[in-house]
Every structure is written in structure tokens, then in C-alpha cells.
């Protein structure tokens, strides 16, 4: 990029901020045009700093950026949405902080994907507007986020032999066979393929077709449908275990289990 070049009114959501030098901070944002960026905000720790309040994590802002030799700089901030209802709800606030930490950890600087930006904004806008604060909203975000990263599980048929979901469902209902989730294979496996792969040391966990169906819902449904989806706690725990182990397998970074944090 050309030193001194300016971006005016770039849409961004603040992921994190950390101290840098005596009065400055590095603000990590995700933008529509340039993806994740680390930007220096000069003098932001001073009491009179006018931009400080607008650069809190999960603030939705328009920012002006100036390209420097060694760093890019925030020069102006215009607030779009501060998501006040989220900040006044402890559970929502904790979920939001975890979500931003996960996104920041897994994305590289400069990799732009407008779909990820849109996913972030849609999640925050919905959580901001609903009274519901269940962790299943975080499960749904994580699954849809990982799908955008290229890790969408194959759930319509066995990933080894192509046996259909419907065929496996019939066997599962009769109690004869229990399918599995094959991590390195990227999705669902039938009973026969599960046993075969396990015999050679592949990592596969047992899962009922209810969990598979619920996982599909997390991937495809909008946030309101996720909230309205009836599910007993025992059923949710099985679903969450599947989601979490899927995410851990496909992540190169250490990811803590978010279900135990809220």
C-alpha cells in the first residue's frame, strides 16, 4: 500500500484493543474492504481522547485509516452501533467477548471475506435485539463461521461409502446401527464405515442422527430459528459436544470450551 494513502469511512467491527507505547493502543478490527487489521490509535489512552469510547470491542464503526511506513493508523471514528443491550447483559457480553476472541485468533491480518463481516454484524444485531441469551447462539455462529473458513461438514450421506442419511436414519430408529462423525473425513459415517475406520485408528465419535440433524440446523438456520428450536438440555449437551470437538479438530489454535464459561 502507498504510504499516506487514506481509506475514508471503512465499515468495521472492533475485535480487540491492547496497549502500545505510553498513550497509544493497537485496535484490532474486522473490515469490509481489508478483512482483519491491526491499527494504531495515537493518544487514545489520554482522558481527552475523542475516539476512545467508540473503539470498545464489538463496536460497529466507520473509520478513516491512514497508511504508514511501519503501521496503519486510525485517524477518525464515527459510531454506527454500540450494541448497548448486549453490554448491559452479562451473559450476552461474555458470549460476545468469546466470539470476538475466537474470530481474532483464527483470522489472519489482511484476509478479507465480506461474508464473515456480514455474519458478525447479523449475529450482533440479532443478539442485541432479542431477550434470549442461550449459548446455542454461539454454537450456531461457530458452525457458520467455520463453514465460511472451508470446514463445512458433510451431513447428507456417509463420507466413505455414500450411504444416504435416510437409510442410516431407518437403521438408527430400529436400534440396529449407530452412525459416527468422522473428523478427518469431514462428516457423517455409517455404522459399517465407522467400525472399519476405527479399526485402523481413525478418530470417530458416536453420534445419533438427532445430533446430525441439529448440527445441520445450526449451519443453515437464521438466528431466530435457532432460538425457537425446541431442545432439551440433554439433547443440547450432545449437540454441543459434537460441535466443540469438530471445531477443536479443525483449528490449529487452542480453543477453550465456551459452554462452560456462561
Task: Offer a quick outline of the entry.
This protein has 262 residues and is α+β, with helices and mostly antiparallel strands. It has helices spanning 84-87, 90-106, 114-129, 136-148, 165-173, 191-198, 209-220, 223-228, 233-250; strands at 6-20, 24-31, 35-41, 60-67, 72-81, 180-182, 187-189, 204-206. The two termini are 42 Å apart.
How would you explain this protein's 3D organization?
Involved in DNA repair and RecF pathway recombination. This is DNA repair protein RecO. Pfam families: RecO_C (PF02565), RecO_N (PF11967). This protein has 262 residues and is α+β, with helices and mostly antiparallel strands. The protein folds into two domains: 110 residues, Beta Barrel (OB fold (Dihydrolipoamide Acetyltransferase, E2P)); 97 residues, no CATH class. It is built from nine helices and eight strands. The strands form two sheets. The protein has a five-stranded mixed β-barrel with strand order 1-2-3-5-4. A three-stranded antiparallel sheet has the order 7-6-8. Strand 6 and strand 7 form a beta hairpin. Helix 4 packs parallel to helix 9.
